[in-house]
Amino acid sequence: MKQVKLILAAALAGGMMFTGCKKSDMGLSNGGVQSDATRGIPSSGMANIKYMIDATPSSQGDMLQWTSGSMAATRLTLDAVKINPKWDMNFVNYSGQVQPSGNDLYGKIELGSVAMPEGKYTAFTFSVFGEPVASGSAIMLDGWFTTVRRSAQGEPGNNATKVPVKMTIDMPMHLSAAWKDTMQVVSGNYYTATMHLDPLLMTEGITQSMMNDAERKDGIIYISSSANRVLFKQVLFNLNRQVKVTFARKDMLQGS
User: What is the reported pTM?
Assistant: First the structure.
């Protein structure tokens, strides 16, 4: 199955070069640290990076309203540039596992953690991978589309009706967001990387007429790779440009 990558432009992609940079395979497996980090226990010399998804809607649209959702995340990765003494730099990669409870996608949820050795880093890229599972799609949203009936003269009528909508990313996905700043990661500390994913913005650019013309099955509008593909492509485009990340030490976050 072809993988679809939904990637926000990563920091340092393109023309920026580093003097003395070298590729490192450090952290590709992280030895036996991953399970401790997933349980929220920083190991010796390590910091715990907790991954969150904040899918709180900015508002409810007049046309589309989302009522529930889910995400089948399967893997977490963290890419960064480690700044060593004398400004020698290594590209590093660390991975973590998703905790089973991180499935509901409506509001703010914890996905899991990645363990990271202490040190000075810059150009962070946080990634979440997901795949369809037996119980659902990589991302799924359920909600309602409110139709607007028009008179023979084309004026809006008063008899609006609600049509169920099911939007699914039914193929492997990769959500990624960049954090460009430099941070000193301290052993034994807890950090939070929150990826912001607004359900309302996922359907930005989809108009009333596009929804009115959408194909329906048993009275439901399905949006997926095989149903109403024009709408589906717009959803993928929106995901690509709207994912953002906030990265901070946990005790610096309000309400942490």
Answer: 0.73
CB of 240 closer than 8 Å to CB of 6: yes
| Angstrom distance (rounded) from CA 105 to CA 139 | 8
Alpha-carbon 76 to chain mean position: 10
Of 59, 5, 104, 52, nearest to 203 (Cα)?
A: 59
Helices (H), 12-165: 34-38
Q: Using one digit for the tens of pLDDT, what is the confidence trace for 102-136?
A: 467 777 888 899 999 999 999 999 999 988 766 56
Length of the chain: 256
The mean of the pLDDT values for the chain is 75
Residues of the chain by 3-state class (helix, strand, coil), percent to 5:
15, 45, 45
β-sheet bridge partners, residue 195: 53, 245
